[in-house]
């Protein structure tokens, strides 16, 4: 099946999809993006993603190209045309095309690109055995709360993790030795006292939409203690459990940080239960959207 992309008002074959050489996203990384999971044809946590997309645009002073209803229609059309049942949709918006100059163009017209694709189910071995992460210095800028397309430090970190045989790299603030987040995920631990810990959503991290959903799940579950605060690499290595969250990884248990085993070296019960609860959350949203269709 040939894939279809949306580029500035047109649905085009994926191999022919292109933007102008002077698009500011290409020349300056002057743009933002969102990745939304698709489950059973439904867009998961769509509202949260739209709120974050609009915030990112506003923070960079990029004009919103259209209202939410129009954007929602295009997203669903891209999913439909690509026949995606389980997968993801990628949305990118840049300040548009203009002669190369660092300052904003006077009459910028926001560029909009969307693609959708199917994804494979998670590797059963990864969920059964857990994942490894490595730790690296956080070399990013100080506005990581904006979901910008400027991801070179994240790419370098992800490649470093891959070469080390790890799923992810946790970035570490050199000033205090605390973990900020992964290159494309949020970082969590469960302390020996049973407290679920993740960093507060400030300028140092991206407030993950899956992170928000997991916080809501934790709030509903009895017996789980939760706190938003920084934690050090050493604390993470000595934790009872660790896991990561993201739109594409959902909730994935971590059993090794660098060369240290976490807990007993096996996925822990909190990570397992939160993953199961998040999958239920996705199923419920898919059912609701299906009933509304």
Describe the structure concisely.
This protein is an alpha+beta fold and 293 residues long. It has helices at 24-28, 46-60, 68-81, 124-129, 152-163, 209-220, 233-237, 269-292, and strands spanning 4-7, 10-13, 31-39, 42-43, 87-94, 111-118, 131-137, 168-172, 179-182, 186-190, 195-198, 225-228, 241-246, 250-257, 260-261. Strand 10 (186-190) and strand 11 form a beta hairpin.
Report on the architecture of this protein:
Helix content is 32%, strand content 27%. It is of the alpha+beta class and 293 residues long. A hairpin with a 2-residue loop joins strand 14 (250-257) and strand 15. Helix 6 packs across helix 8.
Helix content: 25-40%
* Gyration radius, in Å: 20 Å
Structural class: alpha+beta
Task: Please count the helical segments.
Answer: 8
> Low-confidence runs (pLDDT<50, min 5 residues)?
none
Mean pLDDT: 96
Helix-strand sequence: EEHEEHHEEHEHEEEEHEHEEEH
From the N-terminal CA to the C-terminal CA, the straight-line distance is 25 Å
The percentage of residues in β strands lies in 25-35%
Shape: globular
Largest sheet: 9 strands, mixed
Number of beta strands = 15
Indicate the topology.
Layout: E1 4-7, E2 10-13, H1 24-28, E3 31-39, E4 42-43, H2 46-60, H3 68-81, E5 87-94, E6 111-118, H4 124-129, E7 131-137, H5 152-163, E8 168-172, E9 179-182, E10 186-190, E11 195-198, H6 209-220, E12 225-228, H7 233-237, E13 241-246, E14 250-257, E15 260-261, H8 269-292
Parallel strand pairs: 7-8, 7-14, 11-12
Antiparallel strand pairs: 1-2, 1-6, 3-4, 3-5, 5-6, 8-9, 10-11, 10-13, 13-14, 14-15
Helix pairs in contact: 6-8
């Amino acid at each position: 099946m040939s894939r279809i992309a949306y580029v500035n008002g047109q649905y085009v074959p994926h191999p022919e999809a292109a933007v102008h050489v002077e698009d500011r996203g290409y020349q300056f990384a002057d743009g933002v993006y969102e990745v939304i999971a698709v489950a059973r044809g439904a867009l998961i946590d769509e509202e949260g993603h739209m709120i974050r997309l609009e915030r990112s645009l506003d923070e960079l002073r990029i004009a919103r190209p259209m209202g939410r209803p129009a954007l929602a229609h295009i997203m669903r059309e891209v999913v439909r045309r690509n026949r995606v049942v389980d997968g993801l949709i990628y949305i990118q918006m840049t300040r548009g095309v203009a002669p190369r100059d660092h300052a904003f163009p006077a009459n910028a017209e926001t560029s909009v690109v969307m693609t959708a694709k199917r994804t494979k189910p998670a590797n059963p071995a990864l969920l059964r055995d857990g994942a490894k992460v490595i730790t690296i210095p956080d070399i990013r800028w100080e506005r990581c709360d904006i979901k910008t397309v400027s991801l070179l430090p994240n790419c370098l970190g992800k490649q470093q993790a891959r070469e080390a045989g790890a799923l992810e790299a946790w970035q570490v603030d050199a000033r205090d030795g605390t973990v900020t987040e992964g290159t494309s995920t949020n970082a969590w631990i469960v302390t020996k006292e049973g407290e679920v810990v993740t960093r507060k959503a400030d300028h140092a991290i991206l407030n993950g939409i899956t992170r928000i959903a997991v916080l809501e799940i934790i709030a509903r579950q009895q017996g789980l203690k939760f706190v938003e605060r920084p934690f050090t690499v050493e604390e993470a290595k000595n934790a009872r459990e660790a896991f990561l969250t993201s739109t594409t990884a959902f909730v994935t248990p971590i059993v090794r940080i660098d060369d240290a085993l976490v807990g007993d070296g096996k996925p822990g019960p909190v990570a397992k239960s939160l993953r199961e609860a998040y999958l239920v959350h996705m199923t419920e949203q898919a059912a609701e959207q299906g009933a509304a269709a």
